[in-house]
UniProtKB/TrEMBL annotation:
InterPro entries: AraC-type_N, Homeodomain-like_sf, HTH_AraC. It comes from the Bacteria. This is AraC family transcriptional regulator. It comes from Streptomyces iakyrus. The keyword Transcription applies. SUPFAM superfamilies: Homeodomain-like. The keyword Transmembrane helix does not apply. Residues 240-342 form the HTH araC/xylS-type domain. Keywords: DNA-binding, Transcription, Transcription regulation.
Amino acid sequence: MTARTAHTAQTEIRAAAIRGIDRLIDDLGGDGAALLSEFGVSPTDLDSEHGLLPTVTAGRILRSATKRLDCPDLGLRLAAYQDMSMLGPLALAVGNCDTVGEGLDCASRFLYVHNQGIRLSRTQDPERYAGVGAVEYRMLHPDIPYEPQTIDAGLGLLHRNLITMSGGYELLGVHLPHPPLTDESVYTGFFGAPVRFDTGRALLRVPTRLFAQPMSTPVNPELRRMVVEYLEAHYPDPRESVVTTVRSAVNRALGTVPARIDLIAEWLHMHPRTLQRRLAREGTSFQAIVDDVRKNAAHRLLTGTDMPFSQIASLVELAGQAALTRAARRWFDRTPTQVRRDAQDARNVVTATRVAQG
């Protein structure tokens, strides 16, 4: 397997991204469960909040269904079967933002939880009209075969979600990067707005005032905060290095739960051996990260608090004050007492200098 092929295979989406495709196929006269089974997928996978699919598999399912059912507008039809609930926990975060613009920004930030292969962003109007902006739906990985039905389904669902978020909005125009797959009237009928094809981009043109429009339903800021914290803790951004992600997870764990590789790997949805290999490729190890996080935490507690050394040792997961002393000598070439005294001496010098300067 080449590096290019391996990278493609690793790009996954939540199976819920094609939720409803089995019912749609059935309604069009086919056998949805049978078609899915050909690709190793079952209808229950699509209803699961945790099921994943290789991105290329999802595209192949749509392409196969389109051909067998002779249904060129399959992507738009699939979008009509879906709603925000398919986004799982992300739907709760988005739906509880104060404005449509904030909801879009939240979706943009965490869309990798749902689909690692796309990005959503607010952008300028490609036609450069005053008071007009755009929401762009963009594929990220050139290694993934381009599937027009996937674009139609994604942009169609974005349009439906904007209606839900706003309670109804003015769509000024649609840009699609491919030629029409069916009669153009089918597209204009679905979107209720002019559609331009072969533009090289997939986006919705909207009045910029839409971004400041309040959500159409009551919002719960505390629920939004809780869901965002959950997403941050359990779904690391694949755009970040593994080292950065692991360091963040160890920081959260330290002093609350044991900073063990099996636990951190579970948080990051990896096997511990996979995590070790990926850290090795970035030139470090799990134990080296834990040691550095402990070092930084110990220095912060020694120099910024009057906390007893035994308590600091416990918070950085060292077995008592003697272990903290040994670690401090290794980290700082000082005992904990000396580290604390040096920090206090430095603060005294700063204070005296300020007093002398008036």
